[in-house]
Amino acid sequence: MKTFDELFIELQERARSRPEGSSTVSALDAGVHAQGKKVLEEAGEVWIAAEYQSDEQLAEEASQLLYRLQVILLARGLSLDDVYRYL
Ligand SMILES: N=c1c2ncn([C@@H]3O[C@H](COP(=O)(O)OP(=O)(O)OP(=O)(O)O)[C@@H](O)[C@H]3O)c2ncn1[C@@H]1O[C@H](COP(=O)(O)O)[C@@H](O)[C@H]1O
Questions:
Q1: For residue 78, what is the DSSP state?
Q2: Which among 15, 50, 62, 68 counts the fewest CB atoms within 10 Å?
Q3: Each residue's pLDDT tens digit, 59-78
Q4: pTM
Q5: Residue ranges of domains in the chain, CATH in brackets
Q6: Residue to mutate, 64, 68, 69, 70, ligand 1, most ligand atoms under 8 Å from C-beta
Q7: Is 53 helix (H, G, I), strand (E, B) or coil?
Q8: Residues 85, 9: Cα–Cα separation, whole Å
């Protein structure tokens, strides 16, 4: 189990060290267009899960949306503090 902040630190480390087989490295290399499509895809899956699926499926889709959101922030060089100051 990890928190949103802990995941972001982990992804920053993946971006820095670029380990073989990392999903994050592949997603970063795919570029902003592909990253944006993933954010939209996962957001749609969250909506579908909320309307038609189980609590567990909703939670899983939400985790994927959070991951994809972090990837797009990371690719742009933003930190979580850049976002938190608007909360
Ligand atoms: N939380 C995630 C995570 N969520 C989603 N994904 C990626 O997203 C893929 C699933 O996306 P798809 O679009 O294929 O999913 P889908 O077909 O829509 O699947 P469903 O939504 O229908 O279930 C997975 O195979 C992963 O590549 C993730 N990849 C990595 N992480 C975490 O990120 C950290 C670093 O991972 P690596 O970079 O792979 O080392 C680790 O803590 C991982 O657990």
A1: -
A2: 50
A3: 999 999 999 999 999 999 99
A4: 0.94
A5: 4-85 (1.10.287.1080)
A6: 64
A7: coil
A8: 18
